[in-house]
Specification:
The protein is an alpha/beta fold. It has 14 helices and 9 strands. β4 and β5 form a beta hairpin.
């Protein structure tokens, strides 16, 4: 039996997402207090009292999801004392995976995620772009994008390869309008994502350069398990800085990550983030093995039996 722990990215936030954990564990209260004293950040207000509109802002969502996902991991590890063979995170979730694996300290990651969220929010506030989800397979989407770029001189990026039939594009609003009409004229379902900028694309180049400068000051430790890079969809091999420095402008290769884990023989996947968002996404791609969500009470019972 091989296991992989998974952590979500932006979009997993919901109002009150940290309240149950805060009320259940005294050590969570201590984490919140330490963070408040060191970073002047009120995690309780953010993760327990904020409404969804406030949480949806990029700089608020990223730190809230990171903290709650990490605390879920701590609670999971305290109970089962199990270090999985693999960890992976979707976009922001990669920082949670690196923290849980021991490659980064919680404090280092908190500082990185705060700055990542700030930089990406700044881009969102000045950006004229966004993201468009396409319910179709990768090759067809790639071919349509290539044709449209040549025909209309568009700048399009495939920002997320989420599952066998969900691809996300990034671009400016005019580009997304054209792509939306192009796909829908072919009978393909599209959805505008509720984000403020063209994330995971060349539009993030300036933010990526600033973030890379901060990353270069971090001394990464050797992970205690294999951690999968979003950029390569393979496990890190001493190249954490080089891969993370490209992440903000690169495609999130999540479907290829899951394919890699399946080829490695992983048969148990545990979504430790809020909202069970990765469990839902993986239902479309997982050909073998089973995924469990730590926020699902029925799944927790099943995990007790297995682990």
């Amino acid at each position: 039996m091989k296991s992989a722990i998974l952590f979500p990215g932006q979009g997993a936030q919901y109002a009150g997402m940290g309240k149950g954990l805060y009320e259940k564990y005294d050590w969570v209260k201590k984490i919140y207090q330490d963070v408040k004293e060191r970073f002047a950040l009120d995690l309780y207000k953010l993760t327990c009292e904020s409404d969804l509109n406030y949480l949806t802002r990029t700089d608020h969502a990223q730190i809230a999801i990171f903290v709650v996902s990490y605390i879920n991991y701590r609670a999971f590890f305290n109970k089962y004392k199990i270090m999985p063979e693999y960890m992976a995170g979707h976009s922001l979730g990669e920082f949670t995976a690196l923290t849980a694996s021991g490659a980064l300290s919680f404090e280092e990651s908190l500082e990185l995620v705060l700055e990542r969220g700030r930089l990406m929010q700044a881009e969102a506030e000045k950006s004229q772009g966004g993201m468009l989800a396409i319910k179709w397979n990768y090759e067809n989407v790639k071919n349509i994008c290539k044709e449209s770029m040549e025909q209309h001189n568009l700048k399009i990026s495939i920002s997320n390869y989420n599952s066998v039939n969900q691809i996300v594009l990034s671009g400016d609003w005019d580009t997304l309008n054209i792509m939306e009409k192009t796909f829908e004229s072919n009978g393909i379902l599209t959805t505008r994502l509720n984000v403020g900028a063209a994330f995971h694309s060349s539009y993030m180049e300036m933010a990526s350069r600033e973030f890379s400068s901060l990353l270069s000051k971090i001394k990464f430790s050797e992970p205690k398990c294999k951690v999968i890079s979003n950029v390569s969809s393979l496990s890190y091999k001493g190249d954490i800085y080089s891969m993370l420095s490209k992440q903000m402008v690169s495609t999130v290769r999540w479907y290829e990550t899951i394919k890699y884990l399946q080829e490695e023989g992983v048969d148990i996947y545990i979504d430790l983030g809020p909202k069970s968002i990765l469990k839902s996404m993986m239902k479309r791609s997982l050909s073998k093995g089973k995924v469990y969500s730590y926020e699902d009470e029925e799944d927790k019972i099943l995990l007790d039996r297995i682990l």
